[in-house]
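To close the chapter, one final illustration. This time we ask the reader to focus less on the individual chains and more on the assembly as a whole: which components sit near each other, and how the overall shape emerges from the parts.
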Amino acid sequence: MIIVMHPDASSEEIAKVVARLQALGADVQVSTDSGRTVVKGTTESRLNEEGPWAMLPGVDRVVPEVVGGRRVGRQHKPEDSVVEVGAVKIGDGSFTVVAGPCAVESRDQLMSIASAVKDAGAHMLRGDAFKPRTSPYSFQGMGKAGLELLSEAQQAFGLPVVAEVLDPRDVDLVASHVDMLRVGTRNMSNHALLREVGRSGRPVQLKRGRASTIEEWIDAAEYVVNEGNRHVVMVERGVRGFDDSARNTLDITAVPVVKTLTHLPVMVDPSHASGRKDLVAPLALAAVAVGADGILIDVHDHPERALVDGPQALRPSEFEILMSQMIAVKAAIRS
Ligand code: PEP
Ligand code: MN
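The assembled structure is written out below.
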């Protein structure tokens, strides 16, 4: 058990925690390496009750110790985790297709795209109401009105919906309108947001930071899971490399690596990885072949008019063709 003390915990409070652990026969280590006093007590099961320890004066948080490393690690749980979003199961051996616009722009736009992706066989709908834009002058998303449209589309088409949440203060709002939350690449290391989506209990897609190692990405997932939320899906969306022919470099290697190191499902976003619609289909097929559990695809009925990411969006007819190709590759892998 790891007990993290408040930054202003007194030395008496720390001493009391240590003494109490020692009285139970624990082997106690005290460290201040992280800038805070952290008390680690190792013994058998009787320390594993978190509640009483969290209530001691000066204690900030209690992190039960994990046997075999991280909670998301394979050692901790050898079998694959399946994340359920409504009736959709991600990671059960099937291939989950999430499609829709990058951003919700209007009712007509969202309903028309939702209807098209459903007809083409998508399992879930994407569409964001809060957009993380590089320039503060670019369209930032429709906010609450966009979330309401997402709820409406979910009801109308029966597709579970995923949307990005940017700010810890918006987690409850977004979670009350959609079925799954997404943490985007820019926020992968926003630990306050990770904790908050962890507390929401909603399934979470966790995108890889665009300059993050796989280990850093897995640690980010651990933040969510440590709040008691096991429903995390990892999304590889490309990292910044030295080559600029595509927006990012899709790290296809990350898929089997993360699936070996963790028990979490892994999806791929070829749209944001490439930023180019001509690259979406080949990368999507590679994702199926490499063993990803699903995919996120940007689809727009009028890409030339899209307020965000038009150049990477497939038209519904192009998405339909890609769907049949992905099904064929999945069948070939299975056989
Ligand atoms: C998105 O999926 O719309 C998005 C903003 O992606 P990323 O965080 O990967 O850039
Ligand atoms: Mn986008």
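The first helix runs from residue 11 to 23. Residues 102, 128, 132, 184-185, 207, 237, 269, 272 surround phosphoenolpyruvate (ligand 1) (CB under 6 Å). With these observations in hand, you are ready for the problems at the end of the chapter.
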